[in-house]
Amino acid sequence: MIRAEDLLSKLIDAMEDPILQEGLRRAVKASVPATNRALQSWPYLTELADYVRKRKETVYSNIDYYIDETLRAIKEKAKANAYFASNKDEALKIIDSIIGNERKTIVKAKSMVTEEIMLREHLTEKGHEIYETDLGELLIQIAKDKPMHVIAPACHLTKERAAELLSSIGVKVTKGMDAEKIVPEVRAFLREKFVKADIGISGANSIASDTGAFFLVFNEGNISLATTLPPVHIALISIDKIMPTITDAFMQAVVQSGYAGLYPPTYIYMIAGPSSTADIEYHRVYGVHGPRELHVILYDGGRKEALKNPVLKEQLFCVKCGRCEFVCPIWNISGNVWGGRVYGGPLGMGWTSITEGIEKAAPLSMYCLLCGACKEACPGKVDMIKIARYLKREYIEKIRK
Q1: What's the CATH class of domain 44-301?
Q2: Cα(257)–Cα(205) distance, rounded to whole angstroms?
Q3: How crowded is residue 297: how many other Cβ atoms within 10 Å of its Cβ?
Q4: Which of 101, 215, 273, 317 is the most buried (most CB within 10 A)?
Q5: Distance CA 321, CA 2 (A)
Q6: What is the DSSP string of 236-249?
């Protein structure tokens, strides 16, 4: 186990980094009021959040049943290919078998689960040409960095730094451009990649066990292109996204977008199989303008084991809206520098424990102030303070030995 003091120099470096500090300041200044406005304008969002928590409790009380039902629904009702992966190696093996050995052009939507298994890095090593299509995630890809926030991965970057990164891969931007001029150039750059892509990869915000249908929330329009233009779509979906019904799954997507402050989102997209038509004699034929193949992989990655831990189980009620990060005083000055390889901030303590192990997460907890702002902000009422105290005890017991 690494010692908490070993993280201190990284946190100090973050606090002394003027670009990071300015990026975080701008992000927090914009995001916190946006979420507050959404919750004040649409108070039913808080009611839906309570409803989603209860439905997730139903799933977690019998997780194996719901995994089996979801896999069956994907195959029988959505007419897609269904897989279950217990860990990173299994997930990568399945994805490799779908893509094949030939070099492919791949377009990818933002997905924290793909970050967990280091999918982009893996596919690059295999020789594939892969592009993140979410603008923030594209910036992270170019910078060879990790997401700074679960919803806004590049929120720590100023527009000047963003322009610098984009120009390095051939996007026609200059350092003095503002966002309104940068975005159209990114659109032009990525549009060619969408059209040429052999494979589209996404995650999901939720998936329904009764139908196998899954929902994606987005604003840029990239996900609809990444999941419909390529002939093959692969969706990697963690088991904490399972909801009992299609209505429940939709509600979870709504709650996630509302508490992220991006409400109503530009798009909530439902996918329930490969493209199809029944316009000739009402006979359903698959593979029309959208993908001919849909492959859905349900991914565990430590979540089933976490359900056995009464403390860490709490983190699985998180919908990854990222609101807890924006209200956290430590995240405000460090971003996901205070975090594990993928997840940072208050939610990062629990998710790092689940996906990387308690020994990686315990030192992070020593910098939590136990102020409770995260729990107050959380739609799932995840008790991150309880998780932090649990990890602090684990850490202290380990270093005493």
Answers
A1: alpha beta
A2: 10
A3: 21
A4: 215
A5: 29
A6: EEEGGGEESSHHHH
